[in-house]
């Protein structure tokens, strides 16, 4: 597996894309249009293994996919792509269902909280895809370099497919994560998405985004 | 301050009560009736500084209060007590708004989740009381002995009154907590209560309840 499609051209997509290039993958960054300016700058910066395309191009291209779109838009974006391109692939979902409509700090989108989650909604939308929820509990610089947080933090993983979680965990190791905890099936995406409020509370207190959680057990 | 009222005679109330006795406090354990059997056994076990009473007796008795009742019952129990007894006192709220009605694992009570919390609801019910939300992110054996989790875990605190949080933090130190983080006002009770789902996911995975969270920052 050499080709990875990263959906989303924001700071999360760009950071994960750059890390994957560093690890030797060919990476396409996907956005609404094929000539997205931010993706274009990213491609120019990172050279020959860095590509850009529409969301649909990116899903078709990647042998593995990363959802780095804003949580509030993720489902619509995924629905806009041709379903057949997702079939059998691993989709790593790093997004969070944040609702900024009520001001700061954001709440979670109520219908994707407590009794459901964005991770589950994506899995339900794409039943032939192996959705793995992970990395959503840290900021993107920590996602791709666990040591940025300054300690041996824990990364949580949830998904229905063991082999997919195993492959994603290998990537997580390459991102610097040595303490990886598999919480079980995709329903446990609820738990990890519900850690965002405390992440936000801590960030608002410390003004330091490079925090991470160590599960002491 | 020598007299502490602990509301709730379950394992949480009994454990916190026993720790407070060990620290030299006089402790009343409160329940619906003045002759509650579990409280009676606890009083017999712990001797002269251990008392029992109704919830109302306990609120009247304590110079500081602990809410160790089940989250689904907390508001009704607090409403059933004479409001004047709460006035000016610190109420340490260690409860969580768990809803077991949909099966295991519990969800959070929807109306006390995401945009509100049990901690805030208690503060709104008792505006003259200094509610401090803390300890709710660990099991009770870890609450009173942070080292039980096997590491230098973090305890989160939220509440509107700085002096109250300072007094409670001194108690937390005596419970073994060395890394205490003040998240701000009582609205941040939302964040800490929303950590319960991930606590439950981890517990279901490890079958080990003595877990705790270290915030690496």
UniProtKB/TrEMBL annotation, chains A, B:
<dbReference type="InterPro" id="IPR036291">
    <property type="entry name" value="NAD(P)-bd_dom_sf"/>
</dbReference>
<dbReference type="GO" id="GO:0016491">
    <property type="term" value="F:oxidoreductase activity"/>
</dbReference>
<feature type="domain" description="Pyrroline-5-carboxylate reductase catalytic N-terminal">
    <location>
        <begin position="3"/>
        <end position="97"/>
    </location>
</feature>
<dbReference type="InterPro" id="IPR028939">
    <property type="entry name" value="P5C_Rdtase_cat_N"/>
</dbReference>
<dbReference type="InterPro" id="IPR051267">
    <property type="entry name" value="STEAP_metalloreductase"/>
</dbReference>
<keyword id="KW-0560">Oxidoreductase</keyword>
<dbReference type="Pfam" id="PF03807">
    <property type="entry name" value="F420_oxidored"/>
</dbReference>
<protein>
    <submittedName>
        <fullName>NAD(P)-binding domain-containing protein</fullName>
    </submittedName>
</protein>
């Amino acid at each position: 597996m050499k080709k990875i499609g990263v959906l989303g051209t924001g700071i999360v997509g760009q950071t994960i894309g750059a890390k994957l290039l560093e690890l030797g993958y060919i990476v396409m960054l996907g956005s609404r249009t094929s000539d997205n300016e931010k993706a274009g700058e990213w491609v120019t910066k990172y050279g020959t293994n860095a590509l850009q395309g529409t969301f649909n191009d990116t899903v078709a291209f990647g042998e593995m996919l990363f959802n780095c779109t804003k949580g509030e838009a993720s489902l619509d974006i995924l629905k806009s792509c041709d379903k057949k391109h997702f079939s059998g692939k691993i989709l790593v979902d790093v997004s969070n269902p944040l609702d900024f409509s009520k001001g700061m700090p954001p709440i979670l989108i109520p219908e994707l909280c407590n009794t459901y989650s964005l991770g589950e909604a994506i899995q339900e939308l794409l039943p032939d895809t192996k959705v793995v929820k992970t990395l959503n509990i840290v900021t993107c610089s920590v996602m791709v370099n666990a040591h940025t947080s300054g300690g041996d933090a824990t990364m949580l993983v949830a998904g229905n497919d063991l082999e997919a979680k195993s492959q994603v965990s290998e990537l997580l190791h390459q991102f610097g994560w040595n303490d990886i905890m598999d919480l079980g099936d995709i329903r446990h995406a609820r738990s990890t998405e519900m850690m965002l409020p405390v992440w936000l509370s801590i960030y608002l207190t410390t003004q330091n985004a490079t925090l991470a959680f160590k599960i002491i057990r």
